[in-house]
Design goal:
Number of strands: 4
Number of domains: 2
Distance between the termini: 47 Å
Number of helices: 4
Mean pLDDT: 91
Low-confidence stretches: none
Strand order of the largest sheet: 1-2-3-4
Shape: globular
C-alpha cells in the first residue's frame, strides 16, 4: 500500500502544492506541477529536492514564458498510441517534449 501526502511550499508571496508518494523500493515520487516535476527520487535525496523546489519553479516559469506558443495537429488513435509508445521508449515522460525534440532535431 502506497502512502501519499500533499504539502505546500511558500515563497514569493504565493503557495505551491506538491505531493509525495512512498514507493516500495526506498524511493519517493515527487509531483509538483508548477515545477514540472513528476519523478521518483531516492528517499535520502527528497529533503534536498524539496529545498530546491523554489528554484525548480522559477526555472519552469521561465521556460513556459519563453515557450508560450502552441502547435496543434491531428492524428488517428493508432498514430497517437504509436507516438506515446515511442515517446516512452525514448525516455520522455511528456509526449509534447518528445514531439518538440524530434521536430527540432530532425532538421540537422
Amino acid at each position: 500500500m502506497t502512502k501519499k501526502t500533499t504539502h505546500t511550499i511558500a515563497f514569493g508571496g504565493k503557495q505551491f502544492s506538491y505531493s509525495l508518494t512512498a514507493n516500495d523500493d526506498c524511493s519517493t515520487r515527487l509531483i509538483c506541477r508548477e515545477a514540472r516535476l513528476d519523478q521518483n527520487f531516492l528517499n535520502e535525496d527528497i529533503a534536498e529536492t524539496i529545498q530546491l523546489l523554489p528554484e525548480h519553479i522559477r526555472h519552469a516559469r521561465k521556460f513556459v514564458a519563453k515557450h508560450d506558443l502552441t502547435i496543434r495537429f491531428r492524428v488517428s488513435l493508432e498514430e497517437k498510441t504509436r507516438i506515446a509508445k515511442n515517446s516512452k521508449k525514448a525516455g520522455f515522460a511528456d509526449v509534447s517534449k518528445f514531439v518538440r525534440d524530434r521536430a527540432l532535431t530532425s532538421a540537422r
